[in-house]
Amino acid sequence: MNTNEDDRSFQRWLKKAARITGLGLSTEERQRNLEEQKHARCEQWKAELLSYSPKVVFMLKHLRLSGCAVPPSNVICAPCDLTRSGGFHPAGAIVLCQGHFGSKKHMEDTLIHELVHMYDHCKFNVDWQNLRHHACSEIRANSLSGDCRYMREVGRGYVSFSKQHQACVRRRAILSVRANPACPDAASAERAVNEVWESCFSDTRPFDEIY
Ligand SMILES: [Zn+2]
Questions:
Q1: Alpha helices in the chain (DSSP H)
Q2: pLDDT in tens, the chain (211 residues)
């Protein structure tokens, strides 16, 4: 027996199975489904982080208090090339690269990283063409975001400014400054990071200093 209703529900089931297994779909359809899934997951994690991550909520509060509120619509989940996990636009928008995150924790680190850039831009009149300015914000963003697992230590109630942490922050900051179109070569990036290191690494605003 095969009524029309049975047939339709079978077709629906078949479509759903195809979506999950990727069977019977063209490469293009499969690719589109994959992007849709990544986008949906990014949006879900974003909503959760904006509401429930203590560190994200803390940063958003301080941005608001500084006159630079970041509405959820200015945090954008989008496909990017796979070399980057996020970005920030001085006009007040953050991009989260939806294909880049293996975990919500990783996305949280990236979001905080970009929010630190946003905070610096708001408070300190950063000139992003100036390598020393850029280097300072990268040192802070990498140190405070958890990109180098700094905040995890804060969560445990102590911070050891370990050599490893510092080496990680330094390495990542140099890479980011190197990618600045205004940066002529690797030596210039390294010099800029070294020149501002002491003052910028110890500047943990808006987080409290931990002794
Ligand atoms: Zn950065």
A1: 4-21, 27-52, 54-65, 104-124, 131-145, 150-155, 163-178, 186-201
A2: 445 667 777 677 766 666 666 667 788 888 888 899 999 999 999 999 999 999 999 999 999 999 999 999 999 999 988 788 999 998 889 999 999 998 999 999 999 999 999 999 999 989 999 999 999 999 999 999 988 875 555 555 555 557 788 888 999 999 999 999 999 999 999 999 999 999 999 999 999 853 3
Cα separation, 35 vs 77, in Å, equals 11
187: number of Cβ within 10 Å: 10
Please give the distance, rounded to the nearest whole angstrom, from the Cα atom of residue 121 to the centre of ligand 1.
12
Three-class SS of residue 88? strand
Residue with tokens 């629906």: 12
4/132 Cα distance (integer angstroms):
70
Kindly give the distance from the C-alpha atom of residue 114 to the centroid of ligand 1, in angstroms, as a whole number. 6
Which positions are catalytic?
114
Strands 86-89 and 75-78: unpaired
- Among 154, 78, 81, 90, smallest CA distance to 117 is for 90
- The rounded distance, in Å, linking the Cα atoms of 75 and 70 is 8
Q: What does the alpha-carbon distance between residue 93 and residue 77 come to, in Å, rounded to a whole number? A: 11
Q: How many whole angstroms from 28 Cα to the centroid of ligand 1?
A: 33
Q: Backbone phi, then psi, for 11, in 5-degree steps? A: -60, -40
Instruction: Give 117 Cα–ligand 1 centroid separation in angstroms.
Output: 7
